[in-house]
Amino acid sequence: MEDEEQRVLNELNLGISELDDQHQAFFLHMVGLRRALIDGMGGRDKLMKTLRFLQGWVQDHFQAEERLMRTHNYPGILVHRLEHEKFAKVVAEFSAKARDLDERGEVTSFLAVEVEHKLENWLTGHIKKMDLKMAEFVKGSS
């Protein structure tokens, strides 16, 4: 992993290993997609693999976060859950669009660029805005 990527991961660390591991897996998929696009090697395959990963990740990760918030009676759970629901819809829309393009044999590279950019920005923004606040509360109530 390059220094810049490691720096970003360190900045996003919540100090809750289960969530940090899941965030890292998401981030590494975005890095892999970006590299596939830059190298011009397997961007389509990497996009489809990344979107399949994200569909499972959305369920597993959001359940883990929401379980933690319920356990600690986090007061911001409803707003946080709404953000999760919005993001799950974005992933579903990207997945449907990618399948549609793939079935028609159309180029998916522009979609891959949009997926990588939008989803990586969402992850970093969500962690900095929502997850860090939640993690501080959870760690303070333990």
Architecture blueprint of SSEs:
Elements: H1 3-11, H2 17-39, H3 43-71, H4 77-103, H5 109-141
Helix pairs in contact: 2-3, 2-5, 3-4, 3-5, 4-5
Give structural attributes:
Four Helix Bundle (Hemerythrin (Met), subunit A), 5 helices, about 140 residues, mainly alpha
Provide structural commentary:
This protein has 142 residues and is mostly helical. It has a single domain, classed as Hemerythrin-like (Four Helix Bundle (Hemerythrin (Met), subunit A), Up-down Bundle). Helix content is 85%, strand content 0%. It has helices spanning 3-11, 17-39, 43-71, 77-103, 109-141. Helix 2 runs antiparallel to helix 3 (43-71), helix 3 (43-71) runs parallel beside helix 5 and helix 4 (77-103) runs antiparallel to helix 5. The chain is globular and about 50 Å long. The termini are far apart.
